[in-house]
Amino acid sequence: MKILIVDRKLKHAGWKEKEGEVLKRAFEKIGEQVTIAGKGYPNSELSIEELSKHHDICIITENYWNDWAWWSWSDIKTPKYIWSIDYEPTTFGDRMSQFVTRTELDGVFTIDSQINQYMEYSTGKRHFYLPYAIFSESKEVKCEKDTDILFIGSPYKERLEIFPKETVYRKDLFGEDYYRAICGAKINLNWSLTDAINGKVFEIISANGFLITNRTKHVSHLFRGYINTYNSKDDLESEVKRCLNDDDYREDRRKALHSFCMSYHTYEDRARSILEIVSK
After folding, report:
1. What topology is assigned to 2-132+266-279 in CATH?
2. Other Cβ atoms within 10 Å of 146 Cβ, number
């Protein structure tokens, strides 16, 4: 199958690749032919109609832009889908739904299944659950464990209220600096605001970091018993205390979770899921 992936070239200089480029490699690893196109790529000046007619399907993976009009999406004549990887409820409910309807998409992949029924009703388009994935190539950076508890992000009030007071907050990290911070922490914290599992969870696992995240429907379903979770502030404090000083336990759990995800949750797995859905 010939696949066209639409993405936008990187905005942050520290990142070497984005979801579209990782998905392109995943499709190629399972034997498919792939072209990636979009703003910032050498072929961005070409007609999207001309590009798309030489492919069997088109998958749009870039969700972060505010200006959706840098191509005439209706000119894509092959079946076209979007993977909504930048999920945020109010944004998806307004800006994304308008885009889905206006561009006559054939289907939408979302990282949160709870919105699918409503969005199918409001847009008239099929929606499919497709969570993030881990990189099959390890992102681990060798470094000393110089941080006990780390959260990569801003110290918002809600986080300060639930995370241990010893938590170190870091933001504006990209590329190797981002993965070095993950590997340098004994415990990496995460807090998903909805049932959607944010990209940070899979990035920490990809980087071979030890993770504790809040328990949600998708977390329980996707990772079964391999992931360390919490339900409340007290629950998190207890879990951190149990894990912080037991290096062997953390290492065993980290390895088990990473191995499980390598078997079931790589981008190659997501590529196969996409092909299975679009073929039907």
Report:
1. Rossmann fold (3.40.50)
2. 11
CA 139, CA 262: separation in Å to the nearest integer?
A: 13
Closest CA to 209 of 257, 272, 280: 257
φ/ψ of residue 187, rounded to 5: -130, 130
Helix (H) or strand (E) holding 109: strand 107-110
- HSE, side-chain direction, 13 A CA sphere, residue 32: 22
Phi and psi at 108, nearest 5°, equal: -130, 130
Token digits of residue 67: 């200006």
Q: Which CATH number fits domain 147-264: 3.90.1570.10, 1.20.1630.10, 3.40.50.2000, 3.90.220.20?
A: 3.40.50.2000
Q: Is 201:265 a contact under the CB 8 Å cutoff?
A: no
pLDDT at 12 over 60: no
Mean per-residue pLDDT over the chain, rounded: 87
Q: Is the pLDDT of residue 30 over 90?
A: yes
CA distance 252 to 103: 47
189: three-class secondary structure by DSSP: strand
The dihedral through the CA atoms of 148, 149, 153, 157 has a sign that is negative
pTM comes to 0.91
Give the other-Cβ count within 10 Å of 233's Cβ. Answer: 12
Q: How is residue 272 written in tokens?
A: 């196969």
Q: Where exactly are the structural domains of the chain? A: 2-132+266-279, 147-264
